[in-house]
Amino acid sequence: MEKERKYNLDWLRVIAFDLLILYHVGMVFVPWNWHIKNIVTSNSFIVPMMFLNQWRLPLLFIISGMGTYYALSYKTSGVFIKERALRLMVPLIFGILVLVPPQVYAERINQGIEYKSYFLFYANLFNGIYPAGNLSWHHLWFIVYLFFYTLILTPLFVYIRSNSKLKLIEWLNYILNKYPFLILIFPIPLIIIEAALYPIYNYTLSFWGDWYALSFYGVLFFYGFILISLKGAFWKLVERYRLFFLIMALLLTPTFFFLLGTNHQYLIYTVRLFNLWSWILLLLGYSARFLNKPSTLLAYRNEAVYPFYILHHTVLITLAFYIVKLDLNIPTKFILLVIGTFGIVWLIYELIIRRINFFRILFGMKSINNSVKKNP
To answer: What digits encode the pLDDT tens for the residues 161-216?
Structure first.
């Protein structure tokens, strides 16, 4: 059974979710629509945030697919789905009913809608779906999509692993070993999805009718499982050619931003997705080379990363509701929100969530008695 832990995947997951918090703080100040906005916005946030958009979420879905491979190597599909349901759906329901409503409440108050109390607002929670109504999953959409992929793709993954006649992994291993640069054709299905579905369905993250995002992230989740199935051959490839992938990314990134000012939409799609793939491969390659080692800090952060993700949005929006009203410049407000969000979330995690089994379950953690070392 494949039980070797890839610590670099843990590091990448932790880093990606840390960047998510920074990204959401940036949403307060970038001139894009969001829940709570500073009165004055800044265009200086656009480029770094669009850069992160290139690869951060795709990387997380790749890693999630890889984690599925490791989990299925020592669990039956039934046990795996049951554990995923507990780890994903309990925090989702808790989030929808407890953590997200304060976010919507702060947004409504900021819009000038008056409520006599939070309890009167909450009494109308089920009167409609956000944004027209107040019921929403907000940032927890990631959990919904991840559970959906788990349900529909786990039977396929089990079939691929157990069917010796299929030989998909053996064939792919042979092809990439003989022609390693064929790994660069993986963005082609993503380009087709982008060109065919994005203009029609856009990017909603509402699940129902969100055919573009469901297809796009589903392919990446599938890629994660398939590529990690290659085992050592895949890691050898991304480590060996990591500099090449870095050069590709450094060339394609400015090309993408340049093309945004043109009308060449399909060329923009193509460059964007080859750039996305280059960043994913180089991050996997460099992390495998330099970050594939255990540490006490990593063990702590890896266990904390999921509760941090679940909780951070509520803390951030609550802080932003008050901080945007202060007579301070944007850099100062940004720093206050970053420090405040990380600090408050950490205190709640360390003093309450981590130590009490009831809250551990609500935030997708294993109980203290059953907490064991997990595969990525």
So the answer is: 887 677 888 999 999 999 999 999 999 999 999 999 999 999 999 999 999 999 99
Per the structure, the complete domain to which residue 279 belongs is given by: 7-362
Q: How far apart are CA 141 and CA 143, in angstroms?
A: 5
State the pLDDT at residue 1: 42
Question: What residues contact residue 352 under an 8 Å CB cut-off, 6+ apart?
Answer: 359
State phi, psi for 159 to the nearest 5 degrees: -65, -45
- pLDDT, one tens digit per residue, over 248-287 is 999 999 999 999 989 999 999 999 999 999 999 999 999 9
Whether cis (ω within 30° of 0) applies to the bond prior to 131 is yes
b/e map 220-238, b = 16+ CB within 10 Å: bbbbbbbbbbbeebbbbbb
Q: Give the number of other Cβ atoms within 10 Å of residue 3's Cβ.
A: 9
Buried b (16+ CB within 10 A) or exposed e, 289-307: eebbeeeeebeebbbbbbb
Domain membership of residue 346 (yes or no) is yes
- Within a domain: residue 374? no
Query: Residue 246 falls within a domain, yes or no?
Result: yes
The answer to whether the Cα torsion of 360, 366, 370, 371 is positive or negative is negative
Q: Which helix (H) or strand (E) is 36 found in, with range?
A: none
Q: How many independent structural domains does the chain possess? A: 1
pLDDT in tens, 54-83: 999 999 999 999 999 999 988 899 999 999
> Would residue 70 count as lying in a domain?
yes
pLDDT tens digit sequence for 303-357: 999 999 999 999 999 999 999 999 999 999 999 999 999 999 999 999 999 999 9
Q: What does pTM read for this prediction?
A: 0.95
Buried (b) or exposed (e) across 64-91, using 16+ Cβ within 10 A? bbbbbbbbbeebebeebbeebeebbeeb
The HSE-up count of residue 112 (CA atoms within 13 Å, CB side) is 0
In angstroms, rounded to a whole number, what is the distance separating the alpha carbons of residues 374 and 316?
Answer: 29
